[in-house]
């Protein structure tokens, strides 16, 4: 809805407000996730046409699973980008969490739930340090999280070799609490002829919570305000420091959750995993309508972006294409989505 000032009849130049309503179509096209929705339909139609295995129920299960593992992290990354920052350490942070839980439980012969809680503390601490260093030093999030990325990557490899003598954590499949933890983080449910991983349900829940926070709470207003202009937000009383640290800790929480899934789905974790995944999370958020400059985007758009990359990772395999094309697709869609988002934002601002 927009308002225009028009002179009232017989009142000289005294203005009055006239309400001009935008059509439902214009309001829909102004939504940040519209471009990603069109892209998702296009990608689905393409692989449905060129890859016969893509049409089966089994492929739907695989695509949903791949989308959920990307989408869970994209939820938090989208919120962070709306807040004006991004995190290059998100990919290796997932592996750090899984290694912390697995090695702690195995080395101390503890119930795996103890390791899960230890890993949660580690992940939240990583997020807190990222946010605290950023707000205190005023350094760009690119530099802060790049440093964290390199440090975590080195720690993952070095500590795993020191503790286990190899590059992977020990199997914890026969330890107390494993089955119950697996039921929470890595179980599956058969719906009709489709086997759906529990990560899909968690993904949808996280998207719903993030959407509610963004659109229905004061914290959501803070996130948009901080991403739009941190100085202006601070001037009107928005707790910029707490908001940014909280967003980085949210990324840490999602990294913990996905790390727990990886651990309990595969029993063991390779210490070199996760590198370059952060680029997929960021690309999925941008494809979903989040601007690199902050202040614009949605959790639903991030979810659609995750679904696009989930379809692509599996569709390329089903189509028997060279998997190296995946990296090209990520780069091309990131550039295209950024240009489209800028165009949509410009049209919305003019409107």
**Secondary-structure element string:** EEHHHHHHHEEHHHHHHH
Task: State mean pLDDT (0 to 100 scale).
Answer: 87
Q: Would you tell me the structural class of the helices and strands? A: mainly alpha
Q: What does the largest sheet look like? A: 2 strands, antiparallel
Strand fraction band?
A: 5-15%
Report helical residue fraction: 55-70%
Q: What topology, given as strand order, has the largest sheet?
A: 1-2
Shape estimate:
globular
Going by CATH, the architecture of the largest domain would be: Orthogonal Bundle
Compute the separation of the termini in Å: 9 Å
Tell me what you see in this structure.
This protein has helices spanning 24-29, 34-50, 57-82, 90-107, 112-137, 141-164, 178-185, 198-216, 218-228, 230-235, 240-266, 277-287, 299-318, 325-350, and strands spanning 2-7, 15-20, 188-191, 194-197. By secondary structure, it is mainly alpha-helical. It has 2 domains: 1-30, no CATH class; 34-350, Orthogonal Bundle (ABC transporter involved in vitamin B12 uptake, BtuC). It has a two-stranded antiparallel ribbon with strand order 1-2. The radius of gyration is 22 Å and the shape is globular.
């Amino acid at each position: 809805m927009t308002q225009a000032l028009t002179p009232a009849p017989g009142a000289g130049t005294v203005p009055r407000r006239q309400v001009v309503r935008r059509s439902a179509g214009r309001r829909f096209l102004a939504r940040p996730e519209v471009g990603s929705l069109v892209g998702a339909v296009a990608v689905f139609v393409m692989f449905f046409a060129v890859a016969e295995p893509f049409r089966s129920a089994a492929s739907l299960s695989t695509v949903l699973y791949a989308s959920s593992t990307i989408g869970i992290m994209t939820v938090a990354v989208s919120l962070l980008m709306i807040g004006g920052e991004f995190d290059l350490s998100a990919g290796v942070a997932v592996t750090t969490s899984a290694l912390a839980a697995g090695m702690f439980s195995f080395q101390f012969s503890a119930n795996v739930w103890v390791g899960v809680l230890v890993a949660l503390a580690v992940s939240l601490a990583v997020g807190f340090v990222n946010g605290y260093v950023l707000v205190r030093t005023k350094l760009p999030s690119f530099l802060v999280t790049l440093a964290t990325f390199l440090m975590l990557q080195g720690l993952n490899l070095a500590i795993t070799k020191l503790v286990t003598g190899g590059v992977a954590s020990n199997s914890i499949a026969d330890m107390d609490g494993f089955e119950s933890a697996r039921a929470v983080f890595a179980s599956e449910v058969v719906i009709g002829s489709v086997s759906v991983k529990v990560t899909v349900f968690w993904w949808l829940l996280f998207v719903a919570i993030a959407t509610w926070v963004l659109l229905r709470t004061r914290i959501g207003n803070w996130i948009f305000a901080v991403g739009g202009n941190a100085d202006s937000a601070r001037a009107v009383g928005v707790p910029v420091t707490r908001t940014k640290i909280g967003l980085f800790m949210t990324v840490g929480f999602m990294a913990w959750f996905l790390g727990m899934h990886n651990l309990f789905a595969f029993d063991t974790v390779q210490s070199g995993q996760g590198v370059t995944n952060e680029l997929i999370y960021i690309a999925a958020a941008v494809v979903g309508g989040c601007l690199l400059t902050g202040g614009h985007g949605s959790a639903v758009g991030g979810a659609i972006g995750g679904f696009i990359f989930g379809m692509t990772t599996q569709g390329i395999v089903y189509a028997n294409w060279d998997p190296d094309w995946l990296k090209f697709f990520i780069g091309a869609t990131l550039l295209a989505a950024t240009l489209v988002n800028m165009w949509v934002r410009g049209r919305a601002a003019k409107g």
